[in-house]
Write a structure and sequence with these properties.
CATH class of the largest domain in chain B: Alpha Beta
Oligomer: heterodimer
Number of helices of chain A: 7
Distance between the termini of chain A: 29 Å
Structural class of chain B: alpha/beta
Number of domains of chain A: 2
CATH class of the largest domain in chain A: Alpha Beta
Strand content of chain B: 15-25%
Distance between the termini of chain B: 66 Å
Number of domains of chain B: 5
Strand content of chain A: 5-15%
Number of strands of chain A: 4
Helix content of chain A: 40-55%
Number of strands of chain B: 18
CATH architecture of the largest domain in chain A: 3-Layer(aba) Sandwich
Chain lengths: 167, 596
């Protein structure tokens, strides 16, 4: 199905130390209860995604099995086991955007970049996700690229918008 | 004292339209002019009229500027602030009276029928300043509860008000609190469900962004009522602004002694923490949400035991939605009778709706229960744009159903919506016009539930998938009439055999569209035709020979060379080559290309 980019894991010692430190902080903040999701969120902030090596660190720190970490990591939409692109594209497929034609915008992005939702281009430049309502329904249909928000997007405008992010 | 106040909307809608750059530019200009002691610039929560964002209001004139751009800032400062001349070209047209004077915002169609209780401070105060909340009677209700009322008094007051859960199911809030109070145990929890997952609803987010202290205060009141000392707000990580403002608000409340130990010197202790959801629609279900706070996969569990008996970490817990909490301080201050005087007999108070889709005034509206759909869509929402005909409104998101045009005079409350096959849900209200295909909409929601089903129950996990595939057959034109009956049967099977609300309500969008728009389903199946012209596989693009001038524009733009014809002669589309991209229709200057 999905074409995922498998890149070798190149996490640094510094990142690992940062993650272990973050988990120690979470243990104090959460008074020892309900740590896993917060730990995964911090890990994704640090590494950008959650490869097996990172899940193993979390399993070690929390004293649970790797399977349990994997189970939680794959349950929630926020977590990605694969790296994301330099520019993360989100097309809102919330209801308000959908009835105003965001499905066509989404398809146009797929066709233009030759990827599907959840995938990344080979050069790791763009990744695409269908997002749920991001809450600016007044601008529907909405497309986001990292922190930039594009409102009232038509399929015709997609190529022009993407062009701004190509070198 | 300031001579002028500029309120800039800092909600997600306006922020997406660059309102924070406008805010920065205003502050910079005012400092440059040396007016910082005369003119005060504030960022507020959502004003509600998101369609016209970014929005700002300048007082004392009450000038409501809409669709403001960063480039407009200099003109607003030069003309309005320095010379006292209102920039009429930026005014929201509804606020300009015939004689050119400014009408109060509450006299405009969008605001006239609204009654803001849960949203009262949104767009009024700066949510990042606790003093502004306190100036609007903030934390007075908590003070009253802790010094004048017993926990049972609080529950009685909430019960008498008739407040029902605003998250969708409408369970009476007072009763829920009573169960938790009656449960034995020395550790209890108060939780807030801010995991707004309905794709098209954003009222909870707007409350958290615009008035976070109201939720904090209400949770403290609830904690006092049931005997809890710890609360959790479970909020979507996708709502960064809401999370940031909540974090600031909790910090400020702690500094003021309104959270923590011995609040108001009463001996009552309560503290509050934020837990970030990680994106799972099912976590809006109460047991799943608690399982998620505990750090696990957010799968629901059977009830009983109910959370009020055995909830978070196995302790008695209450869970209410953001909007439910936002009503609590007002009920305590103004009394149960005041609250019960609004709305209908079984649905008291107001409800916030996120109005979206094919409607002029996209945004957030708060109306008394019992307001009709017609009033919301036409009087407040301004109807469908481009003169299109209203077809249906969808409420309750993936758990709800469609309300067809002939039921537009139904007064909105919990029971009426259930009776017509929809539900209140969290309050998303999506308007659809004649260009929306109802089968396609049902398919859209099913795709969502297939994605979001947690997988625990077979009926939901596999059933929604099969239902989705049947809908695909309908939109592809390969379904039979028997398939429609099978679909209906499967819908009831899923409803009856799923554990939680997600599965039990997942077939609703299909059932309600099948009920009200069966002719549209039949057109897809029997005539292989999509009446709204949405389902691509059933579309045929044709050229009307009488209108075609033979300009060749369509043929030159067709990406697959499906159009042939000689210059100045009518052209023809080869249906076998056509990929139905619609370019020919967009390009034709004579309206000769039609969808059939």
């Amino acid at each position: 199905m999905a074409k995922k980019i498998d890149v070798p894991f190149n996490g640094t010692k510094k990142q690992e130390a940062k993650l272990r430190e973050a988990i120690a902080e979470i243990k104090v903040e959460h008074k020892g209860q309900g740590l896993m999701i917060a730990a995964l969120q911090r890990a994704q902030d640090i590494y950008g995604y959650l490869p097996e090596a990172v899940q193993q660190i979390i399993a070690d720190e929390l004293g649970v099995s790797l399977a349990e970490v994997y189970g939680v990591a794959t349950f929630y939409a926020q977590f990605s086991l694969y790296p994301k692109g330099q520019y993360k594209i989100g097309v809102c497929l919330g209801t308000a955007c959908y009835v105003k034609g965001s499905g066509d915008v989404y398809k146009k992005v797929c066709d233009t970049l030759h990827i599907e939702g959840g995938q990344c281009t080979d050069d790791l430049k763009f990744s695409l996700d269908a997002t749920r309502c991001i809450g600016c329904c007044g601008l529907a249909p909405v497309m986001t690229i990292n922190d930039d928000v594009y409102g009232k997007v038509t399929p015709d405008e997609v190529e022009g918008i993407l062009a701004k992010y190509r070198d | 004292m300031f001579r002028s106040h500029i309120l800039v909307c800092g909600g997600t809608g306006c922020t997406s339209g660059n309102s924070m750059k406008i805010y920065d530019a205003l502050v910079a200009r005012i400092q440059k002019e040396g007016l910082e002691n005369e003119v005060h610039v504030t960022k507020t929560g959502c004003f509600g009229l998101c369609a016209l964002g970014p929005i700002m209001i300048v007082y004392p004139e009450g000038a409501f500027y809409s669709q403001v751009k960063v480039e407009d800032v200099d003109e607003i400062i030069d003309e309005h602030i320095i010379k006292g001349r209102i920039v009429t070209r930026l005014l929201y047209k509804e606020t300009v009276a015939d004689d050119g004077s400014i009408k109060a915002l509450n006299d405009t169609n969008f605001y006239k029928k609204q009654h803001r209780v849960a949203l009262r401070n949104c767009g009024v105060i700066n949510p990042e300043k606790i003093d502004e909340y306190i100036a609007y009677d903030g934390y007075e209700a908590l003070g009253k509860v802790l010094t004048e009322m017993s926990p049972q008094d609080v529950i009685d007051e909430i019960s008498r008000s008739g407040l029902r859960g605003r998250g969708g199911a409408g369970f009476p809030t007072g009763r829920k609190w009573q169960f938790a109070k009656n449960s034995p145990g020395n550790k209890k929890y108060v939780c807030c469900n801010a995991d707004e997952g309905d794709p098209g609803a954003f009222m909870d987010r707007s409350i958290l962004e615009g008035d976070p202290h109201a939720v904090i205060e209400a949770m403290a009141i609830a904690a006092y009522a049931i005997g809890s000392d710890q609360g959790y707000i479970y909020v979507r990580a996708e709502y960064p602004i809401a999370v940031q403002r909540l974090t600031i608000a909790i910090k400020q409340a702690r500094e003021y002694g309104l959270l923590g130990k011995n609040i108001f010197g009463s001996g009552f202790n309560f503290d509050l923490d934020i837990r970030l959801g990680a994106g799972a629609f099912v976590c809006g279900e109460e047991t799943a949400l608690m399982t998620s706070i505990e750090g696990h996969r957010g799968e629901p569990r059977p009830r009983p035991p109910f959370p009020a008996v055995k909830g978070l970490f196995g302790k008695p817990t209450i869970l209410n939605n953001v909007e439910t909490y936002a009503n609590i301080p007002q009920i305590i201050l103004k009394g149960a009778d005041w609250f019960a005087s609004m709305g209908t007999e079984k649905s008291r108070g107001t409800k916030v709706f996120a109005l979206g889709g094919k409607i002029h005034n996209t945004g957030l509206v708060e109306i008394p229960m019992g307001t009709t759909m017609r009033e919301i869509i036409y009087d407040i929402g301004g109807g469908c744009p481009n003169g299109k005909k209203f077809k249906a409104a969808q409420t309750g998101g993936p758990s709800g159903g469609c309300i067809p045009a002939h039921l537009i005079d139904t007064p909105i409350d919990y029971d009426n919506l259930i009776a017509i096959g929809s539900m209140m849900g969290s309050g998303g209200l999506i308007v659809m016009d004649e260009d929306n295909c109802m089968v396609d909409i049902a398919k859209f929601f099913l795709e969502f539930t297939v994605d979001e089903s947690c997988g625990k129950c077979t009926a939901c996990r596999i059933g929604t998938k099969r239902l989705y595939e049947m809908l695909c057959k309908v939109t592809d034109g390969t379904a039979t009439m028997e398939d429609l009956d099978k679909m209906e049967e499967l819908c009831y099977y899923i409803k009856e055999n799923s554990l939680c609300g997600l599965g039990q309500t997942a077939p609703n969008p299909v059932l309600s569209t099948l009920h009200y728009f069966r002719d549209e389903y039949e057109a897809h199946v029997r005539d292989k035709r999509c009446p709204a012209g949405v389902c691509k596989k059933l579309l045929r693009y044709q050229i009307v020979a009488d209108k075609c001038k033979g300009c060749t524009l369509c043929a030159r733009n067709c990406p697959v060379g499906a159009i042939s014809g000689t210059v100045k002669e009518p052209h023809v589309i080869d249906p076998n080559k056509c990929i139905k991209c619609g370019v020919c229709m967009d390009k034709c200057k004579f309206g000769a290309v039609i969808k059939a």
